[in-house]
Design brief:
Helix content: 25-40%
Strand order of the largest sheet: 7-9-8-12-14-13
CATH architecture of the largest domain: Sandwich
Structural class: alpha+beta
Distance between the termini: 20 Å
Order of helices and strands: EHEHEHHEHHEEEHHEEEHEEEE
Shape: globular
Radius of gyration: 19 Å
Number of strands: 14
């Protein structure tokens, strides 16, 4: 099977490419018909995908984190839609968060991950399509595979990017400082055109996958294959409770009343606060209002299925 590896040279603050060099000989033995591309920006990534499609590669493995996977999937779905339906997409997790990789059963052991990629068992998984306001004020459409969130999660993304190292301890220390100064954003959340929540939130999420922020199981019941989003709004709570919230979320527990959850195929979120940002799979594409629609079985993703 012809295999293309798309390696992000800046993944995990540049350490990913060094890790790649250490086990590329094993890649060579496991994937005899392979090519490695190391695009440095979006234009080079688009050039690589054009070549991959023209040369009829059957398997594309993204080497990087959630943001790298997000960029690849967006280019596939917007500029190569027919190829996106045919090609097998795999992930070799070398990013900081790797939350989508967790949702499909990949681990910290790259040996086990290579076993999974070599076997190439896949499922047709859902994709989120979101329409929103771009930084230039124009409507825009993008895609996400794992999760869309807003509120304190945008601070989590900033903390992840600003942390001195990709370790969870450094990340959590940076995040806690940001939480202390967070002012909840007021939103209106509609699920299938019905208003399900109006008021301030700490975090709101529209999820395909289960994890966020480097391993927080924010929506442990979410599925990549059920044709629906799992949504959650954690509402305003006392400051002391906010600091209890973070460790509880890391343990997959939500024993608090300040939450609204539902399972739907379409979600709209609005806010009267100008330039309210949101994030999708580690990227900050734009601002509210947004509308997200679940596209069932949109891509073929390799995992521990």
């Amino acid at each position: 099977m012809k295999t293309a590896f798309l390696l992000n040279p800046r993944a995990k603050k540049g350490t990913g490419i060094r890790s790649w060099s250490s086990f590329e000989p094993e890649i060579r033995s496991r994937f005899p018909h392979y090519t490695v591309y190391t695009p440095a920006d979006l234009s080079q990534l688009e050039e690589a995908l054009c070549l991959i499609e023209q040369q009829h590669y059957e398997r594309v493995i993204v080497v990087g984190g959630d943001g790298t996977v997000n960029r690849v999937l967006n280019l596939l779905l917007t500029r190569h839609p027919d190829f996106a339906k045919e090609v097998l997409v795999g992930i070799l997790p070398m990013g900081t968060g790797n939350d989508l990789a967790r949702s499909i059963g990949l681990t910290k052991s790259q040996q086990k991950n290579l076993d999974i990629l070599q076997k190439s068992r896949y499922r047709n998984i859902d994709i989120g399509q979101v329409t929103f306001t771009s930084p230039t004020g124009e409507p825009r459409t993008a895609y996400f595979c794992n999760m869309l969130t807003l509120g304190i999660s945008t601070l989590a993304l900033e903390a992840l990017n600003q942390a001195r190292s990709p370790s969870p301890f450094c990340y959590m220390g940076t995040l806690v400082k940001k939480v202390a100064h967070y002012t909840p954003t007021s939103i209106r959340m509609y699920a299938n055109d019905h208003l399900v929540y109006k008021g301030p939130i700490l975090v709101a999420s529209i999820a395909n996958g289960r994890y966020i922020g480097g391993g927080i199981p924010l929506l442990p019941a979410a599925s990549l294959q059920d044709g629906k989003f799992h949504t959650l709004a954690i509402t305003k709570m006392p400051v002391w409770k906010q600091f209890c919230l973070l460790p509880l979320l890391y343990m997959g527990k939500q024993p608090f009343r300040e939450r609204v959850a539902c399972t739907v195929s379409r979600v709209r979120i609005e806010s009267d606060v100008a330039d309210t940002p949101f994030e999708t799979d580690g990227e900050l594409p734009g601002f509210l209002p947004l509308e997200a629609v679940c596209l069932p079985q949109a891509i073929r993703l390799i995992g521990a299925f």
